[in-house]
Design a protein that fits this description.
This protein is an alpha/beta fold and 121 residues long. The protein has helices spanning 2-15, 32-44, 57-67, 85-93, 97-107, and strands at 18-22, 48-52, 74-77, 80-83, 117-119.
């Protein structure tokens, strides 16, 4: 099962140009760090995917090992870990997050839905 979870995580990261692993959903964050991080993403105005780690405890356990990053939320752009709440917030405040997200989306050839967020199961 452990290998299946790692494959699932790799698939999520590689299939979504902008992906945040968070506690809760963008509409109902379940911790302040996730809330601040997702608000920064929403304010960038670009579509992104999310995984609610509270609904997926196996991902919550395995992702920190895979990422070598112990905390949540985690923002991934085009398969690269950007960081957690403090880094996301700092990049947003400096005006650097939105261009990074736009570039991540532009670099992918995958078409996205009209929705601004999507949940991954």
């Amino acid at each position: 099962m452990s290998d299946n979870i790692l494959e699932q995580i790799k698939g999520q990261i590689n299939s979504n140009p902008v992906l945040i692993y968070m506690k809760g959903s963008p509409q109902m964050p379940q911790c302040g760090f996730s809330q601040r991080a997702v608000q920064a993403l929403i304010q960038c105005g670009e579509p992104f995917a999310f995984v609610d780690i509270l609904s997926h405890p196996e991902i919550r356990v395995k992702l920190p090992e895979y990422a070598s990053w112990p905390t949540f939320p985690q923002l991934w752009l085009n398969g690269e870990l950007i960081g957690g709440c403090d880094i996301i917030t700092e990049l947003f405040e400096k005006g650097e997050l939105q261009p990074m997200i736009k570039q991540a989306i532009a670099l992918t050839s995958k078409k996205t839905d009209d929705e601004s967020t999507s949940s991954i199961n």
